[in-house]
């Protein structure tokens, strides 16, 4: 009887652990062209929450838009890019100062990447004792790596004071990070460092500047909808912001 109850305790422990830990620590999904979305998990309110980043493969190396949230996945992502594409990560750009974006800056710099954030993001990284980039930019900036160009654009405050988005004109991809909510989200998420009143105008600034993207990659949850900009406005309106 005792061994049976011990067996049950074990089974329970295994199941409890299994339900709390996502079965995969890092998933990589082709988006379009030479772009891939990677997803890792972090704990928020005692729940595992997926966070999305993106990478671009060019003839001169790979570019990371944000780093995995799960710090144990920095190296596996690097290894996977090397194995699949034969490329090193040459540039890593974090889109705001939170851990699900910037945690990997020091790691990827150590492995040879040029690491970038906006000046404002770097100030906040410094203030909150987060990893900091090697390089900063002061205003909206077009980067060119190999045969690709992409634009880092600051539309205004929202999820955080410093959140930027990235536009890839060739593929009409908007990498939105946490400023853009997935259509799977039921609320605005963590707004402790945000500005809910300014957020709607920031979304409209993106819409005015880039028109209709083919793909919109959100910071969390599924990114298979083109309606996530409008959906973010809807969530904001429900919060009384417009
Ligand atoms: Zn986030």
TrEMBL record:
Cofactor: Zn(2+)
Gene3D superfamilies named among the record's database cross-references: Ribonuclease Z/Hydroxyacylglutathione hydrolase-like
Compartmental location: Periplasm
Catalytic activity entry: a beta-lactam + H2O = a substituted beta-amino acid
Primary enzyme class: hydrolase
Main location (coarse class): periplasm
E.C. numbers: 3.5.2.6
Superkingdom, natural source: Bacteria
Pfam families noted in UniProt: Lactamase_B
Domain Metallo-beta-lactamase, residue spans: 50-220
Keyword vocabulary terms for this entry: Antibiotic resistance, Hydrolase, Metal-binding, Periplasm, Signal, Zinc
InterPro entries: BlaB//VIM/IMP-1, Metallo-B-lactamas, NDM-1-like, RibonucZ/Hydroxyglut_hydro
Family designation: Belongs to the metallo-beta-lactamase superfamily. Class-B beta-lactamase family.
Subunit structure: Monomer.
Protein name: beta-lactamase
